[in-house]
């Protein structure tokens, strides 16, 4: 490999500012909901009011009679495949004789004004026959069961603790609702501008439903207002495209906040039964667990979520005997799928709660028990997979332990107390607690999935200067991937002027922006494409290196300025890049090298709890995480802050309330997310222990903070209150009861 000038400004390792940052804080950034076309129509969706019902008839007459209405479509108007899905094509484009969850799309409307479209949807008469909903997962239909078994299934231990835990349904709560613009094309196809996480898998599903070849469906990424997994599945993509092709007019669809709650998947609610056995000295002997996930009405990515819950179900610990089984079921509850942490979140809450319970039974400090059993490089997962990269579990725990503790409040400042300026307490009844958590997460897609990314890199002369254009289909959803691609190009080619093209389907797939994979996989693709460009250029001029805008000989002498070397012949290379392969797991034992990389994060939470009113104030969070190599340290810290905040939300406030299949709180009035007043000061300790198998040694960053922050906060509340707290989110009555 040739060397590069790492001193190039804004290259790998620099804290590069986001190009969209200033626009976003000023409210000037163009999100997908801001898309506009001069002669566009507006789309609206009629959704089912029942979680389970048979459709006996649909009357469109009144809707079609409204002035300004251009089209009203039902499942009969879908020209291609009637169903779609990420892994299993089981979700109807529009309801087909039966609705299986509250909010399922039944019909769509295009009109010349958004209010007209909504009114027309309300004029559609649907004759429903309600059916009893299945809302308990074990009474539903099994979607997938994943066992992971190793060692002696009959192992016994001197000290045994058991626990039953529950995780509520969390929403991704992104701020930009589902939206996009479909424009009919002259070739009979459609151009779709949309906020998504995976352009090519969207195109595949949309084209199938439209009955078109994929090349006639072109997608471009519009401005994304957050994602966190909820944009992996289709929402309005097919609907807007159907309406555009029917009316031959551009059609824009924008969900309101309530509709957004119905229009995307959520985190799987879970019930988890765990048993841990250990020696009296604190060595783990066995872990047995049963995990039940509610997949809701359609499959989405539930099969993969169940696999993650099972394969990561004992945590970052060495356990010789494991019997874990994760099952996911269809129900008539809202569909569930990808959300940051993807199966590892639910399991981590349970196994970390168990580690605290076991430490109590042994009379050990919870951190000492964790450090004693921490996996290291060379450990084996319960699946039998060798952990062949750094696994600094004990060091991460020690680092959060050794951070200075936050001082007690010196003055009775109401803003620093539970209840805040609500004036519920002046310090009486307030107890402080400290808790710890650590988690493990896979990076990238698993179980033999062909996980790759494509990058096209062009080096040319523009205005007398060397310039680089990077083009991938990788979705920037707020994680900072645009800066990463530019940083890698600057480092590899020694050129400061780098432009990252808008992501679209005009280049090969980059896979999904999920599983903490894009910096690894698309970063790897951009790096490889840059290396291919460099090799082509150096072959042209006979040099050996590119650095600081110069072509150098092997001895370092300048052979040519880059501008001279490139001349009028730009160099362009497209590379499809893959990480090392993964493999399916054995369906009976769960054995196999399922994952490409593991990531770890630890948290220490300090909380003040008003034990009389059940109110919690998170005072401070200390966190440590190994990121392998921080490509953009500023962005890494932002990811850790954001992920920790979502974990805090799950611990203390975030839950979609579903009763008999009906969502009771589809709004940010009643579904609460942490605000700046809820998120405490954070002490962030970033380790850079290079993974020898990854580009630059990097390790995925985005998900681990969400995984271990929740159990750490709950452990701190337990320490303050003495309550068992086996369910998240914690409610006041759990503390006071």
Care to describe what's here?
- The protein is an alpha+beta fold and 737 residues long.
- Helices cover 24% and strands 27% of the residues.
- The chain has 16 helices and 31 strands.
- The strands form eight sheets. Strands 3-7-1-14-11-12-13 form a seven-stranded mixed β-sheet, sandwiched between helices. A six-stranded mixed β-sheet has the order 9-17-16-15-10-31.
- A hairpin with a 6-residue loop joins strand 4 (83-84) and strand 5 (91-92).
- The radius of gyration is 27 Å and the shape is globular.
- Residues 1-7 have low confidence and may be disordered.
Would you spell out the secondary-structure blueprint of this structure?
Blueprint (H helix, E strand, L loop, with lengths): L20 H5 L15 E7 L5 E7 L1 H5 L3 E5 L9 E2 L6 E2 L5 E2 L5 E7 L2 H9 L2 E6 L10 E10 L8 E9 L11 E6 L5 E5 L4 H12 L6 E5 L15 H11 L3 E4 L2 H7 L6 E9 L5 E13 L5 H10 L9 E10 L13 H19 L3 H7 L20 H10 L27 E14 L8 E11 L2 E8 L8 H13 L4 E3 L17 H24 L3 E3 L2 E3 L5 E4 H5 L4 E8 L18 E14 L4 E12 L6 H20 L5 E2 L2 E2 L18 E6 L16 H18 L5 E2 L3 H5 L1
Parallel strand pairs: 1-14, 10-31, 12-13, 16-17, 20-21, 27-30
Antiparallel strand pairs: 1-7, 2-6, 2-8, 3-7, 4-5, 9-17, 10-15, 11-12, 11-14, 15-16, 18-26, 19-20, 19-25, 22-23, 23-24, 26-27, 28-29
